[in-house]
Design goal:
By secondary structure, this protein is of the alpha/beta class. The protein folds into two domains: 263 residues, Rossmann fold (3-Layer(aba) Sandwich); 101 residues, Up-down Bundle (Four Helix Bundle (Hemerythrin (Met), subunit A)), CATH 1.20.120. It is built from 13 helices and 14 strands. Strands 5-4-3-10-11 form a five-stranded parallel β-sheet, with helices on both faces. It has a four-stranded antiparallel β-sheet with strand order 6-7-8-9. A hairpin with a 2-residue loop joins strand 12 and strand 13. Helix 6 packs across helix 7, helix 9 packs across helix 10 and helix 11 packs antiparallel against helix 12.
Length: 409
């Protein structure tokens, strides 16, 4: 599966700072110190309702991570999946009378278009669950043969008790895990499971549903968590730098994925940092497909909204915060974009070297994009008042905003 085209990232003078970021697993800040190649895995969409603003906010956060690393003169090895076969996708296709593969292909294509418009840097490897199945099956077999998985009426389940580190990502108690498991794709009430929290690794073929050759597992399709583990281990290996996604993925998805990897490799940790973006709400409730309260990037683009303004709306909120989408927050971003473009269009302006370092410092401090925006606002205000005669300053500001914030002025 192919990703989307990359926009050019301008090189800035000097060198950026190492990223200090909030790690869900430790509950506190962690300064990341990748090697020459920083490794990041971000969980992708299930392609049946792309791309809503919650998606966009998540991928914007991890785009900033990439940009901070690139500014430190590192290379970035970024991997993202597409869950192009799963219960929610099949349910939507059945509801709408569509072929599930056509639905997945259409929504994935739309997602690519939105990511391109928003100038999100693409992953080096963009892998669909379906194309990963040949690599998933052997992993499930290994877990089963090692006693870390078991069969129940043809389905294969992972035993969470096989991982002594289980619970180390989300740090939730058993009851909270049970409730979230039921809410987020698990089946804790199914009789016969060794532990109610045990997640499915391989679902035996169901009537009328897609199926693949599972070798000794029998025909069927993969569970959700093992999909990402297979892709991440194949392309990044154990101990990669950042596992990213929305905060609703901390449990069960990232917790279970880490346990799968620990059991498969005997190594710990799966990822050095678990980083989670906040949720975006509309009319007082978290945007969700089930509630239908979604704001789509593509719909805004069709209405003529500049994608740079959409991106500035996202950047105005700290990535870890939960916030609400309103017309007012978009209007503020449109006005900000106009001010910034007017400021950099003048032939000279106030010196901008300090601004570059302010933006770098803000982003290195747990991706504090709102602080970075305020720094550019201050420069633009000085520019409006005729605060300098540096002929190179507008270009420096424009390149900084482009390189570090992904906004083209």
């Amino acid at each position: 599966m192919h990703a989307w085209p990359a926009s050019e990232v301008p090189a800035l003078p000097g060198k950026g700072r190492d990223l200090r970021i909030h790690d869900t697993a430790t509950g506190g800040p962690l300064t990341l110190d990748p090697g020459p190649v920083a490794r990041i895995y971000v969980c992708g969409i299930t392609p049946y309702d792309a791309t809503h603003m919650g998606h966009a906010a998540t991928y914007n956060a991890f785009d900033l991570v990439q940009r901070v690393w690139l500014d430190t003169k590192r290379q970035v090895h970024y991997v993202q999946n597409v869950t192009d076969v799963d219960d929610p996708l099949l349910e939507r296709a059945n509801r709408d009378g569509q072929d599930w593969t056509e639905l997945a292909e259409r929504e994935t294509s739309l997602f690519r278009e939105d990511m391109t418009a928003l100038r999100m840097l693409p992953p080096q490897h963009y892998i669909g669950a379906v194309e990963a199945i040949p690599g998933i099956v052997p992993l499930v077999e290994r877990l089963r043969d090692a006693g870390a998985a078991y069969e129940l009426d043809g389905d294969i389940y992972f035993s969470v008790e096989s991982d002594p580190h289980f619970g180390g990502v989300s740090h939730l108690d058993a009851e909270a895990m049970r409730l979230l498991s039921a809410e987020r794709g698990g089946d804790p009430e199914r009789p016969g499971k060794k532990n109610p929290l045990d997640p499915m690794l391989w679902m035996a073929a169901r009537e009328g549903e897609p199926r693949w050759d599972g070798r000794s597992l029998g025909p069927g399709r993969p569970g959700w968590h093992i999909e990402c583990v297979a892709i991440a281990l194949d392309h990044l290996g154990m101990g990669f730098d950042v596992q990213g996604g929305g905060s609703d993925l901390a449990f069960p998805h990232h917790e279970m994925g880490a346990s799968h990897a620990h059991a498969l490799t005997g190594e710990h940790p799966y990822a050095k940092a678990y980083v989670h973006a906040g949720m975006v709400a509309l009319h007082g409730e978290k945007m969700s497909k089930s509630k239908g309260n979604l704001v789509f990037v593509s719909a805004l683009r069709r209405q003529g909204v500049d994608p740079a303004a959409i991106r500035l709306t996202l950047l105005a909120h700290h990535y870890r915060s939960d916030w609400e989408w309103t017309d007012a927050v978009l209007d503020e971003a449109v006005e900000r974009l106009a001010r910034w473009r007017a400021a950099v269009s003048r032939p000279d302006g106030p010196p901008a070297d300090a601004l570059v370092e302010e933006v770098r410092a803000a982003l290195a401090d747990d991706l504090d994009a709102p602080a970075a925006l305020r720094a550019v606002d201050r420069w633009a205000a000085l520019q409006e008042r005729g605060g300098g005669t540096d002929e190179g300053a507008p270009g420096v500001v424009s390149r900084t905003v482009d390189a570090l914030l992904g906004v083209a002025l």
